[in-house]
Design a protein that fits this description.
Largest sheet of chain B: 5 strands, mixed
Strand content of chain B: 25-35%
Shape of chain A: globular
Largest sheet of chain A: 5 strands, mixed
Number of strands of chain B: 8
Low-confidence stretches of chain B: none
Radius of gyration of chain B: 15 Å
Radius of gyration of chain A: 15 Å
Helix content of chain A: 10-25%
Order of helices and strands of chain A: HEEEEHEEEEEEH
Mean pLDDT of chain B: 92
Strand content of chain A: 35-45%
Oligomer: heterodimer
Largest interface: A-B, 24 and 25 residues
Helix content of chain B: 10-25%
Distance between the termini of chain B: 38 Å
Number of helices of chain B: 3
Structural class of chain A: alpha+beta
Shape of chain B: globular
Mean pLDDT of chain A: 96
Order of helices and strands of chain B: HEEEEHEEEEH
């Protein structure tokens, strides 16, 4: 079991901070890699919760590997979200306040592969035409788009 | 009761994430605001734990008000601290992994008037002559601040 599951076993569904990190992988057309999540069916950047002792960047790399089968080169931090706007109730009733960081990279290697459980599907999307994304990525992805438009990536 | 103390009642002393925020407040001379802790004989940046529903920036502003009685204009995210080096075990045995957002702000006022309970003394310190600093989060934040200053980025 992971950190959050172990806490849930003790505290039930009450609101917890869920600290997480994810990676926006950009291809040469500035499309972003998204995964359809097994836990709620929404799309998001490959990412997930930090385990105790992990940094945001370490968690981001681990989740990219576990959820998409990819290794990444340099990761650039670009966005952090937290607060009342990032409250979420999972279909099973578990309540969280997300604290979520996003990194961006263009350097990845490996074979793109969904595990079929945490990740149902993996696809690249243009940032102007996104599918329904998680509450965190509703903020992170427009920030990424603005950063690209400003020529910062 | 706060988030952490409520959670502690349920989970005991096991390691949990402590989500928090701190402020590096610089005056016009580029000195940083530190507070002398009454609970330990060292110094820290204003900051503390995030409550449910607060953003990290809101936490930073609240702590700056509670601990130093100060309001600040723009706050810029300076660094994000996380990972094994920010593990801390309190004297009572409670274990935490700190996850901290450190913000940078500018103090434009002339003098400070400490009146908060937690704080014995507030003072702006030159970055080249800092006192003993409390804990890994504050130490790392000030180390990165000094590096940024040396690169001419402040």
């Amino acid at each position: 079991m992971g950190y959050i599951e172990e806490l849930r076993a003790v505290v039930g569904k009450r609101p917890l901070f869920a600290v997480g990190a994810g990676v926006c992988v950009l291809d040469h057309q500035n499309r972003v890699l998204l995964q359809r999540r097994g836990d709620n069916g929404l799309w998001s950047c490959p990412g997930g919760g930090l385990e105790p002792g992990e940094s945001f960047e370490q968690a981001a790399r681990r989740e990219l590997r576990e959820e998409a089968g990819l290794e990444a080169g340099a990761l650039q931090f670009f966005s952090l979200t937290s607060g009342a706007d990032y409250f979420y109730t999972y279909p099973n009733g578990d309540q969280v306040y997300f604290v979520s960081a996003r990194f961006v990279t263009r350097e990845v290697w490996g074979e793109l592969k969904a595990d079929g459980q945490e990740t149902l599907e993996l696809r690249y999307f243009t940032l102007d035409d996104l599918p329904p994304v998680t509450v965190n990525d509703q903020t992170h992805l427009p920030r990424l788009r603005d950063k690209i438009l400003r020529g910062e990536l | 009761m706060g988030y952490l103390s409520d959670l502690r009642k349920a989970v005991g002393s096991r390691p949990i994430f402590m989500v928090g925020a701190g402020v590096l407040l610089l005056d016009r001379q580029g000195r940083v605001l530190l507070q002398h802790r009454t609970d330990s004989d060292d110094w820290s940046t204003p900051g503390g734990a995030c409550e449910l529903g607060e953003s990290l920036e809101q936490t930073a502003r609240r702590e700056l008000m509670e601990e130093a009685g100060l309001e600040v204009g723009e706050l810029k995210l300076f660094c994000l601290l996380s990972g094994a080096e920010f593990y801390y075990r309190y004297p009572n045995g409670d274990e935490v992994y700190n996850v901290s957002a450190i913000f940078l702000g500018r103090y434009e006022g002339e003098e400070i008037t400490p009146d908060a309970e937690e704080t014995k003394e507030l003072r702006f310190f030159d970055l080249d002559s800092l006192p003993a600093i409390m804990g890994p989060v504050n130490q790392k934040a000030l180390e990165l601040l000094l590096e940024a200053r040396n690169r001419g980025e402040l």
